[in-house]
């Protein structure tokens, strides 16, 4: 068997209502002063009020930074770091979707180590140490609470990543009650993002693709496949919400160690340039990238097809099962109310060539794709998706 290395968050708490006990559960390791990083929408909804109060009840002084936008910018990260330094914080709590968690991760690194961000981009370049870090996801999608990755938008449109086990948090707190009010469109898009993490991790050509990631990806797909429609159409179903949160975390553990590939590489120019939500960007290119990959990966897609859609067990032929899997995924996105084509999200055909050139910059992802992909291939995939 090939050798591999598997890193994950060392302590994971899965408990409905846990955010209201955050001070007890996670306070002791955070020091007396904490920076809580979140977004303005969540602040307005009062979603972090219980967590805040519970930290304060434990005698922890909390500075709230609530200015994280979707696809957070470098300027926002810098402001979060300034706020943390000004308050001399000893720990960081990320509270929100992937955007807030990603800012919290790099804020903990930069405040803790004083290192220069420009030297931390890429894989394995962060030096540390970071401040104690606790992450509380409020979407079931990115799995950022268990990934070593932070994605920041640099300049007008480039999504840049820093990846290092140093920015894995000390504790992830998964509280399904936080996701009950997640609107259907965001539930659908983030849920598809989680599925894509599992699919791409399972089929990843990374030398570190490993049996743990494969097992986690398959269990993630079972949970996500069985619950995504319930979570979208019956948002108050706490069982379904819990299954989605667990599924997205398992998918995060899988791809944190067996990284994602061309679906994400082609999704980034859509999110970076046109501010289409990350999960929706993935959904728009997903069937087209999988169809492109099928000559190399049909057997892998056939292996996981029935995890998402149990009735595909009956389809014995590998090519047939792979094709049905891809068609079912496209149909599922439609059923969940996601727009099917790039033109539906306001992207003009004239932008496709630039998007294909931008996608090729994601070499860290493209190397993991089961089939080699050129700029011309990227353009054909965008054309098919348009
Ligand atoms: N670090 C990683 O491993 C990783 C992986 C995938 C994606 N990402 C990044 O994560 C970001 C996307 O994160 P996301 O999809 O979780 O969305 P997000 O954090 O950008 O949030 C999207 C919207 O959902 C709202 N929202 C979040 N939780 C809510 C709740 N419980 N109730 C009501 N509204 C809620 C937010 O206020 C926001 O308006 C992108 O920047 C993407 O690149 C990171
Ligand atoms: Fe993603």
TrEMBL record:
The UniProt GO MF terms for this protein read:
alcohol dehydrogenase (NAD+) activity; metal ion binding
Which residues are in the Fe-containing alcohol dehydrogenase-like C-terminal domain?
187-386
Q: Which reaction does it catalyse?
A: a secondary alcohol + NAD(+) = a ketone + NADH + H(+); a primary alcohol + NAD(+) = an aldehyde + NADH + H(+)
Q: Which PROSITE patterns match?
A: ADH_IRON_1 (PS00913)
Provide this UniProt record's keywords sorted from A to Z.
Answer: NAD, Oxidoreductase
Sequence similarity: Belongs to the iron-containing alcohol dehydrogenase family.
**This protein is called what?**
Alcohol dehydrogenase 2
Source organism:
Borborobacter arsenicus
